[in-house]
Design goal:
By secondary structure, the protein is an alpha+beta fold. The N terminus is likely disordered.
Length: about 750
Amino acid sequence: MGKVKTIARRSFLIGSAAIAGGVAFGVWRYKTPYANPLEGGLRAGEAALTPYVKIDATGVTLITPRADKGQGAYHVQAALIAEELDVDLEAVKIDPGPPDRAYWNTALAPEVAEFSAPQEGFVRDALTGVLSSVMKFAGLQITGGSTTVPDGFVKLRAAGASARETLKLAAAARLGVEASALRTEAGRVIAPDGTALTYEELAADVAKMKPVQDVALRAPEGWRYLGKPMQRLDILAKSTGTQAYGIDFEIEGMAHAAVKLAPAQGGGLLSYDASAALAMRGVRGAYAVSGGVAVVADNTWRAFQAAEAVEAEWRASAMPASMEDHWAALEAAFVPSHQDSRVRDYGDVDAAMVDGALVTADYRAPYLAHAPLEPVSACVRVGEDGVDVWTGTQIPRFVQANVAKIAGVEAAQVRVHVLMMGGSFGHRLEDDVVRQAAEVAVQMRGVPVKLTYSRETDMAHDYTRQIAMAKMRGTVKDGRVEAYDLSIAMPSVVVSQMGRQGLSVPGPDSQIVAGAFEQPFAIPHHRVTGYRADPLAPLSSWRSVGASTNGFFYNLGLEELIEAAGADPLEERLRLVSDPLAKQVLEAVGEMSGWDGPRMGARRGRGVAMTRSFGVHCAEVVEVRDTDAGLVIDKVYVAAEVGRVLDPVSFENQVQGGVVFGLGHAMNCEITYENGVAEQQNFDSFEGMRLSQCPEIVVRGLENGTSVRGVGEPPVPPAAPALAAAIHAATGVRLREMPFSKFVEFAG
């Protein structure tokens, strides 16, 4: 039998009552090599056709494999399918679904392809196809890179459309009318005479049918939800304090664990004495785990206290002893032997350096913690029938594989239950807490072991944003920017992060130059070079990854060249911009802010910056005042080109949050190490933006592009350079290193 027929074959379990039947719909292209992951867990009265939508006696369930970290991922996925399925959005149930290759992220490949083939066209398209195939084969079920909307925009709507048309066929057969005469509304199929059949009533009928495929999707003009202001499905719970997060998870018989880890990153346990901890009230045991010791007690507080009582001897960290040594390692990387990439190299940069007025500058960006409000936690139970894991994670398949190795079972025997997360910013792309919980659970079989990190443990043992350094050379001529040569050094984020998953990543690391190489400016002589420094502190993806530092470097370098040319920062960018979409973004932010120059009077200034990251052109204008009490950020204007704004309310919130995130970290935050130990371990020493410092943020989403993009990360990179430029315009102080509070004072 051919593959198409094999994939189309379905199993059905229909209960004694017709209404107990069920069916699931979704996009299930014949080329996919994966079986439907829902079929293996069917109960009596349920049936599954595809991985994304299930209809049974209780209603419609949407499988939402992209995790919700507070950005509204579950809501937007629900809206995408409800739009075509014709159900009330509030009636759709949400289930993150099982970890499975079928839920691979279709939107990851284009970003990687752009690094290898920065010019649009056949080569980039072909490479995207190849990379998509590789990622599909690997089954990369990952939430990240602002890909939730691009990944689901077509396939979830198509799943809803497939279900809708199949339901109409079932109703047509029951009513004896043509399907074309039927319409759908609010979870019902309605006949011309007004007869209505609910989707639940038709569940058993459609369970016996092959889903309709290749259904035309509705034009935006007919959308009921998408593109219009919506109230998020989780907003009531989050507004009333009733939303349950991973750290709130409870189950009968649960034990509570805490860890004492090596103080230094990269250290480890040599020996330990837990006798004092074991003598404390409520303590049930102590166990060596990866990186340290776990103590189990009858509640979290007692586990925290007992973990502190453990005496341990630790291995030293292999990290450089001081921050000066970290910076020296970056400085030493600017040599040919460390060159990682040179994707952009236009004109004759070296010759141009002797033809015009030379401008040079160095820039630095520190390590940063992810520091979500909810510290990481995980609950693991090792039972006779397999292993259950309850946690907030962006990488469920990695979690499944790693726990399987620890428990000595097949990956299919590990059931991962993804929970709502109270923030991440990339933090939950790691799974140390899950592994450690599993290491304890295998020694306490049958007992659900919930391991929770304290705030200090969470921050001190975070895998941070990369430390980075850049060197800029450039020339100006006849009042214009003529040449721009930017060199960037950092350790590899990808190698560090993927190495913890046991994966080798060959070739250049695109994140070393992301947010710099792809910027849409046609400077006559232009070069961006990435240098890979030797590993220092262990790193992980931090909101906007390489662009979070490189957007700062690139914009400030361009800003200094524009100033040297005597040109206006916005006007010169508009002259240089080569992408029509990017030009419209710059024009929009200029119009929004009423731009007429960087200086706005005595001790007032504004700065502009634009960064293309994750396929999104995002420009920001920041306005500041220099007061006797310190600098005040008055207003921020943001324009971003995303192709289509699916939820204006969430869009505005996402952009505003990204701006606050970018500004706050640029103002105040850094992680520094002494002998491998993080010197900042709570918010008293890692202070972001205070409520009293938050500016008014005006947002505009542009919809001129043909590709639908996500906006969780793109507002971050332009924030810091726009603020630095504004401070320079207001005070004359040129900032080239973050955090800015080392050099200027902000009003409280």
